[in-house]
Structure prediction request, 917 residues.
Amino acid sequence: MTDITLTVNGEEKTASVPPETTLLKMLREDLNYTGAKLGCDVGDCGACTVLVDGIAVNACLMLAGQAEGKNIETIEGLSTLEEYHPIQKAFEDVASLQCGFCGPGMIMSTKALIDQGEELTRDDIKDALSGNLCRCTGYTKIIEGVIDAYEEITGKKVPETNPRAA
Amino acid sequence: MADDVKTKEKTESLESLRKADDNLRLPTVPERTLFPKEIGIAPAREQTPAVGQRATRPDGRMHGLGQTKYIDDMFFPGMLHAKIKRACISHAKIKSIDVSEAEKMPGVMATLIGKEIPVNSFGPSYQDQPLLADDIVRHAGDGVAAVAAVTEQQALDALEKIKIVYEELTPVYDPMEAMKDDAVKIHNGESNVYSSKTIIKGDVEQGFKDSDFIFEKTFTTQMVEHVPMEPHASIAEWDANGRVTLHTSLGRITLGRADVSRTLDLPINRIRMIATVVGGNFGGKNEITTEPILALLSKKTGRPVKCVFTREDEFISSTTRHPFVMEYKTGMSKEGKIMARKVRLVCDGGAYCSWSETTLGKACILSAGPYNIDNLHVDAYAVYTNKTMTGAMRGFGAPQVCFAYESHMDDMAKELGIEPLEIRFMNAFNEGSTSPTGQLLEAVVVTDSLKMASERFGWKEWQK
Amino acid sequence: MKPFDFIQPQTTDAALAALAEHSPNVRILNGGTDYVVELKHVAQSPGVVVDISRLQDLKGIEITDAGLRIGAGVTHSEIMADPLIAEHAPAMIDAAHTVGAVQTRNLGTLGGNLVTCVPSMDSGPTLLALDAQVTILGPKGSRQIPLSEFFVFVRKTALEPDELLLEIIIPKENLGKPAGFIKFGLRKGQALALVNAASAFRIEDGKFKDVRIALGAVAPVVIRAAKAEAILEGQAVSEDLINEAAKIAVTEASPIDDFRASKEYRNDLIEVGARRTMQAALAAANA
Prediction:
């Protein structure tokens, strides 16, 4: 067993886990952050996406030991009782999530994308979400949700593209 | 004036709908945006004010907050983890199963094999599927034994210690081969065909004689897995009063409860099934998978037992969409009118029936397409093969035949030099048409919707 | 995952010492996008896993006397965002962009991609086309070998169990060499290459010079299409010659037939890929 100390959503947390524990398993089972989901366990589906020092990673592919001392952000850290996070609000308003299982991962990927502060196009959004699978929505509503959130947060506009040109 | 009253009524009913919807939500944070901001009347149909309106989901907020509890997000005190040993051999007789070494492994609390299950069979149409294969393995994803241990890894390690002796049997993978008289019989019956359906309308042979052209083509589709984002997951707890509580990702819990009752030989009132939000079903979570196994493991250990499928389990042992072999023969007049059609559908059902019987029926009814065909003959068969069983999946047999009849239509249009849309207008159902099974059709808008859709997506421009 | 011991050295010396101590029952972990997946499925525990993700010596992209130095621990995302790479080897950005998806690129490293040595690796062809060298650290010090010698066979490199890949160097003379990269997958994201290809050459006095055509996923390791290169070398620039070289490239590959694509389809892709990357390199040369 190794003691791992890291920061999750601004709070310092410590857990004693075997070395073969993934960051995802530690978050879910030892620290009770069950927002990140286990979908495929091989880094394909993105349901386990969390931010490690601000970048989106598959928590199922990172060993807990590798996250020692890092700053982790999970879906639980976005909204507070006082403030609803604009990405989560946009996803709710547009009905981006159906079964919802991909949602936490999608939203964390979206956050990493918007936090980069770059001008976005529809293609950038598709590219940034290509590691997050969804089987319900066909992605249309999710992309709409991301666009709404981006426009709300940055005040910028995502250029309209002709769907037939794609 | 009357219209104003109507509008007001609708606006009010829409508001009350919203209120009801809002009351379901947890009081999290600020006000939601309501869609649409201007309330109008749906233009297309006037039956309900909901049509044409943008809707949010009552559970959407919790999904987005990451607060929805799926099965794998639930943990109970003392909970054990179960893993299922898969046969990894597609057709074999089980000579012996030895779990003694597995039981000695650290952390292992109980094991289970098929013979310990009171009624080891289930299925919605025919009860031909064992929960854990105890005699014959019929596809590589068949479970053969289960282990409950303190951690998932301990359960996985124990699976490696289970010794099974198989006597290999000849497998059959191709449904066309499986239909032959001399094929290996997967379920010891007289034939591997376990369901067949026929539709006869008019005189198909005469129809072919009256046709100017005959077109024939065979279409095939592949197996498709649902790949729900959330793998199948359940937790079972057998309590001291002899009642079992099941938390499960099952979509059809009422059916599931009956199946659990039957397999455990336990009165249905002793089974409490708690369904939670399902992380994607698409037809793949309509049947029980491990629930009775977990219940028995829980009974043995006196502790809650959880099992979450790995992605591999999901692919090899859960139901899939049926592969079809579809032979189409269509007689056409030179103007492009369908005179007669003969269809033969062979549905590869995999190792067990599951929902094949019902899927076959739907495929059969829809196989002629939304077209007026006076002379029709459809034969359809569901066949066992030594592959992952096929069950319900979105569309239930319709997507397969739709692919076939529409591809066939395009081929014929090209041969006859008729515009693809035109040939469909010529043959499409209209008001008062009868379906292949004699159902009188009302409110038929095939042509209208085709026209409207083709205008909207720019069919003419795309043709260039 | 089977239990193993986890060591996270903070310096390269400590990492080498750990490797020497536990060799051969030791494996190196960095981004983990490939190795952690493998760990979840192996029947035997590796014994000791050494995490090299904290080693500063493996980080950084810089211009040195030798050329462009890229630390083996640089992630694909870092490559995509790096101004030096954009200036001197932009084809590497195209290659890095095709690796997995954002999450994979954020964790996965260039060194890891090379060390994995799967035929379909996306970093291989471009680096091979730019004559990259690799520096390997071991108990006896460091050695530098051409990347072409680094790849030995499927999942086998020239690395010994106690050695570490330190850096990748694109030689000075190849900085800014016109190059093109293409990958064909079944999808845009999260796809393994059915075929990938990279080409690089200089144009001098209207003639092709130093032609390199590299192909991935068509042989046990990433290969160079030497005959196709020879067709162009020293010849006057022409589209026809590019088309001919692309056809020749097909004869130098031995793609497999599998559930992702047939051999015939891959052969078609090789021709198209080789042609398009040469055209891209030509466009870059003319730009």
User: Anything to note?
Assistant: DSSP finds five helices and five strands in chain A. The two ends of chain A are 51 Å apart (CA to CA).
